[in-house]
Prior knowledge:
alpha+beta, SH3 type barrels, endopeptidase fold (from Nostoc punctiforme), 2 domains, six-stranded antiparallel beta sheet, five-stranded antiparallel beta sheet
Amino acid sequence: MFKLKKILCTTAAVIAAFCVFTSAALADTLLGTVHCSTYLNARSAGSTGASVVGRLPSGARVAILGSSGSWYKIALNGGSAWVSRSYVTLTGGKAQTVINAAVSLNGVKYVYGGTTASGIDCSGLVVYSFAKAGITLPHSAAQQATKGTAVAKANLRPGDLVFFDTDGGHNNITHVGIYLGGQSFISAQSGAGKVMEASLTNSYWAAAYMSARRIVS
């Protein structure tokens, strides 16, 4: 009887893991697939010291709500949890190809006029990332803001471009980032000196926000 209960509990845990990808996987959510030898621990916070709240089998699809450093925040059984980015591969069409490319340059140093992994600026990151999806864009945030179609902030999807006026005047586009979902975006920041992620809800970025454009659907 004890063995039977153990088997049933293990089976239930695996089924629960496969239920990660639920209604949270809406237009504003990035999707990924778990790749590991056995299972991936889902934790209560983005740290290996955080408690394990679930286990995901290899091949499980997850809805990614956000990210922090080397961790993804995912939807899990009606709530959320954190998993290591090393074991999750983003999946999907051109928008996610763009995001894959941008995220791969996370931490690369900021270089004005740069468009490569050796050094890159904000519009250069966009040029580089969209080129991976076969799309050519001008190397200028202001010019990129004329491409594609306008998108309301409330309707952002992963892969959309988000534009800012970092000069404080709110009348001139000076910065661009790539929306990741979950209110997060990635960009090459001159102040930080590198490519990094940030939140649209951050007071600085919320005040500087200007507009958004959708290049790929």
